[in-house]
Amino acid sequence: MDNIELLRALSDQFGVSGFEGEIRDWIYAHIKDRADEIKIDALGNLMATINPGRDLVMMLDAHIDEIGIMVSYVEEGGFLRFAPIGGWDPRILPAKQVEIRSRDGKKYRGVIGASPPHIQTPEEQKQALKVEDLFVDIGAHSKDEILGRGIEVGSPGVLRYPFQVLEGNRIMGKALDDRVGCAVIIRCLEHLPQRRPDFTLVANFAVSEEVGLRGARAAARQIQPNVALAIEGTVGADTPGIPGHRCPTRLGKGPAISVADNSIIVNPSLVTFMEEVAKSLHIAWQHKLPLFGSTDAGVIHMSGKGVLAGIVSVPCRYIHSPSSVLDLRDFEHTVSLVKELIYRIREINK
Ligand SMILES: [Zn+2]
Fold first, then answer.
1. Residue from 20, 66, 99, 209 carrying the catalytic annotation
2. Which of 131, 136, 166, 329 could form a disulfide with 170 if both were Cys (CB 3.0 to 4.6 A apart)?
3. pLDDT 10s digits, 239-297
4. Is 66 an annotated catalytic residue?
5. 305 CA to middle of ligand 1, Å?
6. How far apart are CA 219 and CA 39, in angstroms?
């Protein structure tokens, strides 16, 4: 499977926070032969271990969940009220296409209804819509029809836009945050037979990052790593009207090494090590500007007796929208960097 097909398969899977079963099953099937041990914990984290029981434990983490919506009320007329799951900007929701999953796993297409400008008053046109004003229309005529389809309070949904290949080495997908991180780890696991580490490596595919770094918190307690890397899709903002100091990362400038975000100040010795490894590969790389966003590294580094944890990210424009865009060369260079960090991890503090 080439990079485009891997990213397509991952991005198009359904996996709202708390409802990650389908994306987890896909990753499980794809990596099960690569791991010496594989387990799924009570929260739904998927942990694949290479070389269990060695003196040094390195954890890789990428989150499998994506932001989405949850049905919060069914109107008598068959419309669905919903709650946002994860950090949406409510202004982008109206008129977006959605997919709601029923109790038995069937998917129903629909749209987030928006009143046309023709019937809005001048005052209404000036106001930003709130989530409470919005609803989903899946073509049902009544509440009974909704319930008959197995959709009810608690049913999850995503903004459903299929993966696209753009010109110029770029791709667009609904869940590149953080399925691109999952893809980086999958590529590293595939590479292990060629350069097998002499320590324990645990790849954690984490649940519920988008609702507060929940899965990684429980996973880190189980894995008890000495060192950890969170692999993310992060904010690329090299777009018109954004000044340099508000642009955390830029597309095409390579993997982004974080010095700090809202959840962690990365140990400077780890930052220096990551920079040196990136320089040795002669690849493009960049710093992610502080302090935008939070990552699983935030909870991992505070687990147990404390963990040396860092973050490598692939820049993604329009993150937390159904159409994020990334540059495939950034993805390739991130894979190269993370592979090399794995093999040289014992060099930290040497
Ligand atoms: Zn993310």
1. 209
2. 166
3. 999 999 999 999 999 999 999 999 999 999 999 999 999 999 999 999 999 999 999 99
4. no
5. 25
6. 11
